[in-house]
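Lab channel / #folding
Pinned by the channel admin:
"Please post every new chain as: sequence first, then the structure tokens as a reply. Keep commentary short and put observations after the output so the thread stays searchable."

First post following the new format, from NK:
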Amino acid sequence: MSANTTVIEPQAAPDPHWLQRTELLIGTEGLERLRNLHVLVIGLGGVGSYAAEFLVRAGVGRMTIVDGDTVDLTNTNRQLPALHSTVGQSKTAVMAARMLDINPALQLTVREEFLTPETVKDLITNDFDYVFDCIDSVQPKQYIIVVCKQKGIRIVSSMGAGGRIDPSKVQISDLSQTFNCPFAQQIRKGLKKKGVRRGVTVVFSSELVSRENCMLTAEGTRFKRSFYGTISYIPALFGLQMASVVVQEVAAGKTINKIANSGAFYE
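Reply from TO:
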């Protein structure tokens, strides 16, 4: 276990009453399946922070969150943990407190670190039922996807949310079916070299982006060479769509192993 890992024991016994409306919708068995899931959320920015909260509010009983960043003032327009009062604080700490306030019975593990291609393999184990890849760096994202495919773990990956304003263009598909997304194109190209062509569920936007809304970073900071302007609701919608994949599959009674291993991942 990483030195930056904190395992937080449940703060209270489970109280199913707060999930009464959820149970009415997906049934007692569906709710129990959600409670028994362990979901890993990598990246707590505009997409990951909302995805994590939607999962907690849906009743997922065990989660691991990973991010090494602190809240910056420029995050305030789109990221859930970002408030003027939280600037400078660890994103994992802010989100952990929020998630446990929603469900004190949540089993939560917090890893405060930036992932590198070298640390991905140690992080992702078969202890997870789902992995949510919510980072926006090309190389680490490719490694996350490849490791999940190698280990047969269900992954849901976020493509480029920046540079878009039309919520109707955000959708769920296989990575091989994405279009009008330069970021997804880079991921597809890199994964093809690693033998992965399909079988990766992603959330992406088909809205065209303009390079005029793009800014270069200094020397490719943390595997990123550039970033697009971003509006408040698009990353949140990406996170919502990602969370919906889990809820819909669980509500449909699909088994995790069958989902993770369906389709042809390698050619």
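NK: The chain has one domain: 5-260.
TO: also worth noting, The two ends are 34 Å apart (CA to CA).
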